Amino acid sequence: MSDAKVVIVTAAGQGIGAACARGLSQRGYHLALMSPSGSSVELAKELDAVGMNGSVTDPKDIEAVIELALSNYGQVDAVVNNTGKDKESTEASGPGYDPALERELIDIEDESWLYGFDLYVMNVIRMARAITPVFRRQGGGVIVNISTFAAVEPRLMFPVSGTTRAAMHNYTKLYADRYARDGIRMNNVLPGFVENWPMDEKVRQSIPTGRAVSMEELTATVAFLLSPESGSVTGQNILVDGGVNRGL
Q1: What is the DSSP letter of 195?
Q2: pLDDT value for 158
Q3: Which of 11, 151, 229, 248 lies at a 20 to 30 A Cα distance from 218?
Q4: In this predicted model, what pLDDT tens digit does every residue of 151-183 receive, in sequence order?
Q5: How far apart (Å, rounded) are the C-alpha atoms in residues 162 and 33?
Q6: Which residues of the chain have pLDDT under 70?
Q7: What is the pLDDT of residue 153?
Q8: pLDDT given at position 197
């Protein structure tokens, strides 16, 4: 096995996924990238990594990206589970109450709720099912899931994402408790309003730090959770939100 760690990053073609890929590459990790578009393949070329087209909603694609990493590097040490967003998420407002968001929650169809569960929860379950035997053979591993601050303090602007990711947090705690004995850890990173979000002045004023979360800050948190220095951190939800969440 190589001394350099190997990390799979999903939904790595743009946004948070691409930022994590670049930040981990700079820290010396080997990468296997996946996204539904060709963007992750192009990014892989830039970072001297390997990439493929695939979706976290397809179990065969999850298995394929694991095999891609194993066939190229002989090991997988960690996974960063990232996803896109569901159609019910909106960029209409800030984190507080807003009359503009007086839409009917009860009008969201079953299809949207089930898609959110598939996108935000089942991707973690499927990846865990596929990668855990690999980690066990190797003597350990780490999974970091990219979640959302809205899973801790629900907001009407993210009804499906916040609700279903709360279920993902519960699964994370179950997984962490069960597989810590195998040297396997799982944690969640909960970004607030990240710098690629179209932030207006009202949103900015609602954040105690007065600014968006930078991609570098988010990536550094992910890198810490992947590192041996966080060896006793598992089953946790780590907010990186500039203090925007009020609930404790």
Answers
A1: T
A2: 84
A3: 248
A4: 998 888 888 999 999 999 999 999 999 999 999
A5: 25
A6: 1-2, 86-103, 247-248
A7: 86
A8: 76
Pairing of strands 237-240, 78-81: unpaired
Residue 215's H or E segment, with its range, is: helix 215-226
Return the sign of the alpha-carbon dihedral for residues 215, 217, 218, 219.
Answer: positive
238 CA to centre of own chain = 12
Phi-psi map region of 218: left, alpha, beta (phi>0 left; psi -120 to 50 alpha): alpha
Within 10 A of 91 (CB to CB), how many other CB atoms are there? Answer: 11
d(CA 26, CA 34): 18
Q: What angle, 0 to 180 degrees and rounded to 10, lies between the N-to-C axes of helices 215-226 and 15-26?
A: 60
Which CATH code is given to the segment(s) 6-240? 3.40.50.720
Give, as one character, the DSSP assignment of residue 103.
Answer: -
- What tokens does 109 get? 């169809």
The span from the CA of 25 to the CA of 21, in Å, is 6
SS3 21: helix
List the beta bridge partners of residue 123. Answer: none
pLDDT for residue 93? 45
Q: Report residue 234 as tokens.
A: 């598992």
Beta bridge partners of 187: 144
What was the pLDDT predicted at 104? 76
| Residue 92 pLDDT | 46
The pTM assigned to this predicted structure is 0.93
Candidates 6, 5, 17, 8; CA nearest to 146 is 17
Q: Looking at the DSSP assignment, which residues form a beta bridge with residue 141?
A: 184
> Which pairs count as long-range contacts for 211-215, CB under 8 Å and 24+ apart, including other chains?
211/242, 212/242, 213/240, 213/241, 213/242, 215/16, 215/19, 215/23
Residue found by looking up tokens 């951190």 in the block: 233
